[in-house]
Amino acid sequence: MAKRVRFRTQDGLAWITLSGLDASGAPAGFTSDLRAALGGLLDLVARDHALRGVIVQGDTAGWPVATDPLEDYATDGEAPDLATLAQSLAALDQPVLARLSGRITGGSLALSQAADLRIADPETTFLSPEFALGAIPAAGGLVRLARRKGGAAALDLLTRETPLEATAAMSLGLCELILSDPEPAEIAAALDLLHDEGVPPADAALSDPAAYLAAIEPRRAALRKGPLAEPGARALEVVESALLLPLDEALDFEAVAFEDLSAAPLSKALRHAARCAAQTRSPGSGEPIEPMRIGLWDQPPTLAGALLAAGHSVILGASDPSAIEAGFASIAREQERQVQQGSLDPETRDADWARLGAAMTRDGLEGCDMVIAAGTQPVPETPLLLPVLDRALAGRVGPVLIRSGGIVELVPGTQTTTQELARLEAVLRLGDAPVVIGGPGVGGIVTHLRLAYIAAAERAVLAGATVAQVDEALTQLGVTTPPLRLADAMGISRVCAGLEQIRRAPGPFLGLLALEGHEGRASGQGFYDWSNRAARPIPDQAEALSALRREAGITPRRLGTAQIRARILAELANEGASLLQRAQAHRACDIDLAARFALGLPASLGGVMFAADQAGLLATRKLLRALTEEGAPEPVTLWDVLIRNGKSFADLDRR
User: Where are the transmembrane segments (predicted)?
Assistant: First the structure.
């Protein structure tokens, strides 16, 4: 029997305990070994007619929680799937009580809904992340909840973005009682009550079909809009089936909906985006770092607060003294919010506050074990200094930090040791920004992606599209920062200088704008007319473009929306492949996440490297070779290596 499932009987009660950790101590969900062991136990319990009740519970780590919630619904090997386990639990002759603790989600939600009674610890939280991943809960998690408490309650849980606390969860039928560390006698008494008075009906919400449907109606329009419209529409169909169909047919309907949604491109992209975010936010794999005295200069107060919460002492300084006061106020507000929510006790807050100091000058950082500082002025000699730059520099001896687009890139220097890198990474991951590890060279991951994005968009314009068509093609995809508006926001001269810095020649359109002094938004004109603070097309731009095309020998052609997107995404993927080949980036996931933050690409795309995998490396390389005739960079060798070996960019993350 798997170590993750324990079983004992006492006084006619069967106790089944599920471990939330795997053999290595890492959090794990309903893996095949756990499901196989649990299935065998439920068969054993079903044959033991001497038992008067069954308790299913998590261990000290709580119930199992998968890193990817959709993995709980896997149908691998000979182990029973989650739907079979939930049905076996619901079919037991003995009353079943689910004692809930930790995070209840995915498989734990499905099993707890198959029980007759649910008792939650006060700290238990509930979340249904499947919808945000383009799917719905399965194995009865949605149908059984809808039949018990109504379709509206099931949809409310489905669309929540944050965990639901136990008290609020009671109103949605996720638990019936909240008990703090219940004694076995209390649990036995609850089961005896179920045995004597009968199990509460599992279809109570079906007694008034009109009220059931009326409660769903206000949620219908919102669920059918936006990037999650398809999963929203299927979720509505499932909760309607819970009312209109017998239970077994409704469960089948739910299973088909889940299979369709989870196999769709949208769900695959959203799951990939979630994995990338989890990898870049997760703590480093090294040993826990001892508390340090850390100096921060012109750094976000959120980082200071996170360092204090982790037990470090922080010296907060800023070039503008008023920013220090604002930083202290921000930290105090966040701590007070946590106190009010009950996640931080006042004594701990006072202890954290006592470890916070201020530095009015950079000399005030003296004596720190680590300093993270922006600006070019020197700081006192420090065991570990991390300058914050707007770009990486080739051949640097020490590490540097690049903050850009809401993402943090840590670039080790030529003499940065593995231990130093691990300490820096562990400290930075305490903050609220994703952390990626860069490599040697000029410019960071974000810089390269932004410049490649703009250059690819300019080439699409020269090929025949208008400025507005290019940006609109990306906007319709869900991009929040279309490329040519980004160029105007950055400044045309800055874009040109950046391209030259990474050894790329600016295109003729960029060169013309720079020559004429059109800087973009700052000067009132660039790719767009910004004279009234809003981006408007430039009336005579077509004439200038015709002249540029004639000079470059380009015959313009009509480009559709799909063509514009494909060529820009292909060039971005080639830039990412180049970064990987030069070891200036180490994971395709890091590039995908940087593109989301720096360019505003939607999670529904998955990422530029993911999109190349989905489009096919062979087809993308073919497109890239065609684009080289228009001045695009040649596809780097990594494409050939991956294609020759039958690999994808995703395989690079599995090394």
Answer: none
